[in-house]
Amino acid sequence: MELVAAAAGYLYYHSCVNQPQSNSPPTICTYLKALLEGPVKDCRELLRMDKHVFHKLSETLRGKGLLRDTPSVLVEEQVAIFLSIIGHNQRIRVIQERFQRSGETISRHFNNVLKAVKSLSREFLHPPSLETPPEIVNSKRLYPYFQDCIGVVDGLQIPAHLPTKHQPRFQNKKGILTQNVLAACTFDSQFIFVYPGWEGSVEDLHILRAVLDDPNQNFPQAPKGKYYLVDRDYTNTEGFIAPYPGTRYCLHEFRGASQMPQNAHELFNHRHMSLSNVIQRPFSMLKTRFPILISAPQYPFHVQRDLVIATCALHNFIKREDGIHDWLFAACAEDVGPVEEPYGQEEEELELLHLNSTPTDIAADSLRDSIAITMWDDFMHKWEGW
After folding, report:
1. Where are its TM segments located (predicted)?
2. Does residue 280 sit in the same domain as residue 310?
3. I want to staple 269 with a disulfide (CB 3.0 to 4.6 A). Which of 51, 243, 284, 384 is the partner?
4. Distance between CA atoms of 339 and 171, rounded to whole angstroms?
C-alpha cells in the first residue's frame, strides 16, 4: 500500500511540474477597463483625476519599482483600488464587490500603494522657489511689500479615529478628535512641507518649534532675507512673519467702508491676512478631492497619518501634471480674486504705532515694521488722490 501511495504521489507531482506554464500577463479587470474607456467624467468621479494623469501616476510608480504587476492584478488596478478608497472613503467590502477581488487582496494593495506614494512624497513635495511669486508680483497691493515672501505655514486639523486611552490627548479645542498637521504651501497651491500625526490638543506654535529643532524633518528653511507668512497662532521670528498682535486681523473685520484700516499695523494685518489666506485653498481642495480626510477612517493611526502625506503628494502630482485643466484646480482658480481695498471713508491723521521687539524677534519685527510703514505711506498717498 505504501508503494502504491508513493507511486501515486510521484505521478501527481510529475504531472503538475510538467504542465505547460502560462506566460500571459495579467489583464485589466472588466470594471476598470470599462471605466478607462468610458466618459471622462466617470473616470474623474471615481479616481479623482483625469485619465492621462492616472496613467502617468501608474507608470511612475511602476517605473520606479515601487509597485509591480502581480500574476493577477496590474499596477493600474492596484492604484485604482487605492484611489477609489481615499476618493470616496468607501469600505473594503464595497471596493471588493466593485473590482471582484477578495477583501485580503483589496487591503493588501491599498497598503502597498499607500507606502509607494508616501515614499515619493519627497519627490512630489519640493522646496519653494526663491524668486518672488507671480501672485505677488502681479498685485499692486502686495508688491513690492511682500516680495521676499516664499510661502505660508499653518496648521490643519484632520479628524482622527483612536483607541479610548489616547482620545483625551487628541481632543482639540472644540472637543473633536483630530490629528494636527503642520503644512507649508506656495502661492500656487502646492504643498512644500507636511508633518502630520500631532495630537489635536497641541498648539501650532509648539509643532513648528519642534520641527525647526529637528534637522531630520528637513523643513525648507527660508534663507536670509526671505520668509514665510504665519497667522496669529505663531510668533514673529526671523524667517516667519506674523501679524501684529492685538490688532484687527480677520478679513471680515475690515468689511465695509467704515471699517477700513486706521493705521499702518491694521493695513499690514489686512494685507497679510489676504495673502496668507491662500493656504486655505489647497486645504479645501485636499479635502474635496479625498473625502477620507474628513471622516476619521477606522484605520490604525499610523495609516491615518500616512494618508495625509500621500494625499498631499498626489495633490502636487496632479497640479504639476494637469494643473491648468484639472477640474478642481480650474474651479478654484475661477474663485480666486483680489480682496478689494476698503476705500471710502474720510481719514484722519494718525500717529503710527511701534511695538517693542524682543532681542530674539528684532530682525523680524524690524522687517515687519518697515513693510507696514512703507505700505501705509503708499496707502495714504493713494487715498489723498482718490
Report:
1. none
2. yes
3. 243
4. 34
2 within a domain of the structure (yes/no)? no
Mean pLDDT computed over 161-184? 95
Residue 2: pLDDT band with limits 50, 70, 90? low
Task: Give 188-233 pLDDT, tens digit per residue.
Answer: 999 999 999 999 999 999 999 999 999 999 999 999 999 999 999 9
168 shares a domain with 106:
no
Q: Comparing 61-75, 150-164, 238-252, which segment has the lowest mean pLDDT?
A: 238-252
What's the mean pLDDT in 110-124?
Answer: 95
Q: Are strands 191-199 and 227-229 parallel, antiparallel or unpaired?
A: unpaired
Structural domain contains residue 125: no
Q: Residues 153, 296: one domain?
A: yes
Helix 92-99 to helix 75-88 angle (10° resolution) is 140
Please say which residue of 119, 147, 176 terminates a domain.
119
- The last residue of one of the domains, among 70, 92, 119, is 119
| Integer Cα distance of 200 and 197 in angstroms | 9
- pLDDT at residue 260, as a whole number: 84
Q: What is the extent of the structural domain holding 363?
A: 134-343+351-380
- The verdict on 197 and 223 lying in the same domain is yes
Sequence-distant (6+) residues with CB within 8 A of 110 are 81, 82, 85, 92
The x, y and z cell numbers of residue 10, run together, are 510521484
* Cβ–Cβ < 8 Å for 226, 344: no
CA distances from 56 to 5, 14, 61, 257 (A): 55, 44, 9, 50
C-beta separation of 241 from 369 below 8 A: no
Q: Are 280 and 192 found together in one domain?
A: yes
**CA 157 and chain centroid, separation:** 12
Question: 80 in the Ramachandran plot: left (φ > 0), alpha (ψ -120 to 50) or beta?
Answer: alpha
Predicted structure pTM score: 0.85
Query: Are 56 and 186 found together in one domain?
Result: no
User: Structural domain tally of the chain?
Assistant: 2
